[in-house]
Amino acid sequence: MKKNGSLEALSEALRRLPGVGPKSAQRMAYHLLQHDRAAASELGHALLNAVDRIQHCASCNTFTETEICETCLDPSRDASQLCVVETPTDQMMIEQTLMYKGLYFVLMGRLSPLDGIGPKDIYFDKLMHRAANGLVQEVVLATNFTNEGEATAHYISETLKARGVKVSRLARGVPVGGELEYVDPGTIARAMLDRRTT
Amino acid sequence: MKKNGSLEALSEALRRLPGVGPKSAQRMAYHLLQHDRAAASELGHALLNAVDRIQHCASCNTFTETEICETCLDPSRDASQLCVVETPTDQMMIEQTLMYKGLYFVLMGRLSPLDGIGPKDIYFDKLMHRAANGLVQEVVLATNFTNEGEATAHYISETLKARGVKVSRLARGVPVGGELEYVDPGTIARAMLDRRTT
Ligand SMILES: [Zn+2]
Ligand SMILES: [Zn+2]
Known about the structure:
Two copies of one chain form a homodimer.
Chain A: H1 5-15, H2 22-35, H3 37-53, E1 55-56, E2 63-64, H4 70-73, E3 78-85, H5 88-97, E4 102-106, H6 124-131, E5 138-141, H7 147-162, E6 166-169, H8 185-193, E7 196-197
Parallel strand pairs in A: 3-4, 3-5, 5-6
Antiparallel strand pairs in A: 1-2, 6-7
Bound molecules: zinc ion (2 copies).
One zinc ion (ZN) is lined by residues 57, 59-60, 62, 68-69, 71-72 of chain B.
């Protein structure tokens, strides 16, 4: 097996995917090489392409291939409202409710001191800068209703209120302990309507 | 999201990995781009490298970067014995028992008519050719003791015996329904010693 450097390297690299252990990494490597070399090439190119092209939107912080993302450039959005979410998926969930026409800020995570995830890791300064652009009149906190999401919302809320910004939080239509990604759009829609000032 | 072609392409490509659904593909993509771009690049290069370099050993059919693999080139191996296994992992399991000093043939699968996997997919002709090289005196069938592995062993055994080749099968020390990959080396060692002519 010693001379198979590129096979071992592939298994090692697959192990760095979240949720993939040594056994499944090896199985993936064998499967790709034996049954789906086209998929292996496609994934290889897709990874290098994405790393090369995907950056953070200078305005909302989501993943984008352009300096400013499409949503932020959309003139029909209400620039007076800024909804703060943890992930691009959460943003998509809110978009699907059709109840919100403002703009977004994507934290790309949530505060989690135990995991060493602090304000810098959720782009806190960028958010503060964004919220202070003179147009934003309300920041809607739509972080998850988990302990970490609530703590993140609390932290952001306190800082923004100290700076005189109006802050609201999605109403508790979202089940306590729940993650937006797994909640039906109807519930999220109600929570958006019932959002309360914090 | 429309302009993020390379992000969508990455999610799509990750979905082609065995056992990865749309949700985990998206999570993997976000994780790599947000937290581990180095891993993404490494995996990208590893995939393209492996596709480019890994081929099948001309003799034993396992994955290798050279025309003939290291094991096949090892002059200390007993060329009169040929052990037939389903996968490179199974070969490795047998190597770990230190009970076998012959050569191997790796089928890269097993017969499975219901899945449309026939003799051609397990390199049957290549195996027949290999077994008829004039040096092989015994073929040891070490396919799994699952229904499909047994059927594969039976199919190979019948054809080889019709051609006058001595064929043996690992003894039933391996639990019925078991897969070599999950059996302890001691059991495999006993099964190797107790192998019987079929
Ligand atoms: Zn944006
Ligand atoms: Zn070989």
